[in-house]
Structure formats: structure tokens, C-alpha cells
Design a protein that fits this description.
Length: about 425
Amino acid sequence: MAESSKIYKKRIIKSGQDFHFVDERGQKYLDGISNMWCNVWGFNENNITNAMIDQIKKIPHSTIFGLSNLKSMELSRYFLKLTKGMDKIFYTDNGSSAIESALKIATQYWSNQGKETKTRFLSVKSSYHGDTMGAMSVGYVDLYFKKYKHILFPTVTVPKPIGSRLDVSNREIDTDRVIEKTEKIIEENSDKAIALIMESGAQIAGGVNIYPAGYQKRVAELCRKYNVLFILDEIATGFGRLGNMIEYIAQDSIPDIACFGKAITGGYFPLAITTASRKVYEEFEGEWIDQKHLYHGHTFSGHPVGCTAVIENIKMYRKNKLISKIRKNSNLLVKRLTEFNQFPIVSNIRGKGLLAAFDLVKNGNPIKSINGAPISMFIIKESLRRGVYLRSLGSTIVIIPPLAIDKDSLEIILNTQFEIVAEIYKSIK
Ligand SMILES: Cc1ncc(COP(=O)(O)O)c(C=O)c1O
């Protein structure tokens, strides 16, 4: 939360224009991190904002406790059509809560069957699923969570895959060994395993690890083989980030439960979705006396303004053929990334869709600071000075532009990143 004001002056944002933040002095900053990975269309008025305004005039808030509302119903039908193998929807208001709901649904799936011996989640090393207690427990990233480690619930960790890289062909990546180890761990823990949870398509916050082809499908198959529920987190990777609308469909790996957030409203409203398959939902059916239902709900679940945003957002994806536009821009991004190879401090360049990253290293060690400041702060400061807003994940440099970005703005982001890396190289070589 607290980023040192001694290192750079925090800008106070007053408005937005195109893909720019505009601060109180009227300075513009191109959004190079898609507003914490949720910015799709930028900041101008559009069909989504207008539909939200219309909706807020009709009813600004309407609970779904004991009632329903038209927009939450419309969205559930509409959203489930996008997915595959999902039958029911659960609304929350942020990604971490969508994960907590998924964890509770998975736990209760077993306890409704009297299987209370199912007590452990399996998670993939270096995953990130949010900042609430359950999400931290299943998505441990040491840097962020070490102060809470002693109170997080225990999980069983399976190894992370060796991520795909632009300079290494997928055939050279040894996924077999990771899958063998994963299978051994799943088998050993299948009696007590509630579910295996992982990010869909790529890990992002834990260091940007883009899965090699076939890995996710094989994990899904293992979960089925050992009767362990499979939960996929599409919060950061779904809705186009990796060039696919629903990443798990592209990965041919249908989960039992899937979580969506961030880009689903275009970033315009805090809303997240947890979906569940028919198989999962059936364990919650019964008479009230059976007490099988999910005692979990949030004040803002199914908010009609948020649901309206998702509906209009999906319509805009279709109307603007956004997924094919993302794929085109991805070609440009991947091509230009190779230019960073000229810096000896740049290693492990990877990219897919509109997600790209590389590591800054010197003598095999991550470059953590520059001129006495953490590298991430240096990047924020230097990018803002150049009229772009960029962040890094420690010594991992990330490029995560808004999904509907135009080619020229993408070039500006890349040029700025290039200049900053050149400056880092100059000062530490
Ligand atoms: C993969 C993943 N899951 C869950 C979350 C948590 O979402 P939120 O920040 O909306 O709670 C994030 C946030 O970055 C994420 O990247």
C-alpha cells in the first residue's frame, strides 16, 4: 500500500482521457499496466458507461438476498454461454472474494457428502490468488505474505511448470517431469485433497510464468483421475489477456469451478464471478431442512450496475472483434520484445497475448535496486517522468497494456520501457 513518497511524487488522478490518466495539474500518463490489469477500453465515455448511468437511474442498488434483479439474472445467462462446462454463477465484488467463494464451495462440495476428511487444498508454487486469508494461503508469494505466514492455513504445494519463453521452443521445455511430480503429490494426497487451484494460462503476480502448451490440460486430467476438484483462476488471464476470451477453453482444460474478475467489467465496477459446474452444484441441492445450501453472500453481490457493465462489456468485445485485435497487437508486442535482448541485463523474455515480461539480472542475480531505490519505484518514477505509467514486479519487468490499446500507444509504452531499461543498464554496468 504505502509506496515511498521520498522516492517519487505520487500523482493525484482527476480524470481520464483515451488510455491516459490525467492528474490534478492536467498532466497525462499513458496507462502501461492497464490499471492493475483490468483496463480494457481506456477512460472515455462509451456504451458501458452510458448503460451504467441508465441503470443507476433505474435502481442504484438491489440486493439478491431473498430477491433477484433483472441485470444479475440476464448476466448469469449471458455469461454462462461464454463458458464451457459451467452451470451456475456466484457474484462477488473483487477477485479475492471470488477465490474465497470458490474455496468455500469446494470445501462444502465434500462436506455436504459427509466427507469431512477432505481438508487440504493443493496449489501451484508461486501462484497468486489475492490478498485475503484463504487466497493468501493457496497463493503464497513470499514477498507479499511472509508477515502472515504463521497464520495462513496449510496447503500442499505442487511444482510450477517451466514457463514458456520466446527464445526456447515449447518442445525443449521439460513438462513431463513437472507433471510426474505433480501426479505423485496429487496421488499421495488424494484422500484429503479438496481441490487443486491454479491460475489459468499463466501465473502473473508470482513472477509471470506462461504455461507451456499442454501443461494445464494435463493437470486437469490428473485432477479428474484422482477425483480432486479443479479450480481455475481466470481473474487476471481471462477476457483476452492471453489472447483468448476464456483461457481454459483455449487450454482444453475444463475446471469444476472458475473465477473471473478484473477485465470483466472493463475495470468500471468492482465485480467478480465464480462459476461452478453442474456436478458441483448438485451437491448443494436439497430441501431447506437438509442444510446443503451455501451460507455465503456479500452485500454487493449481483449489483445491477456492475452486472450491466459486464453485459455491455461483452457486447463491446464482440462488436469491436477485440480478441482478434489483441492477437494482432500481440504479434507486434512479441516482435518488439526481442529488441530488449541487446541489454546483457535482460533475461528470460516471455510473452503471450498482451502480457509480456523479462527479468533484470546481473551476474545471475536479480537486480533489486538502483541508485538506492527499489527497482519497481525507479520504474514508476522514470515512466511517470516520461508521461507513461509503468510498474514492475520487483526485478521482473512487465508490460500489461490495456486490452483495446491502439498500435501507436503500444509502441509508446514499449519505447518508454526500452529507454528505462537502457538507463538502468547504463547506471549499473
Ligand atoms: C490471478 C489473480 N487472482 C486473484 C486476484 C485478486 O483480485 P483482486 O485484486 O480483485 O482481489 C488477482 C489480483 O491481481 C490475480 O492476479
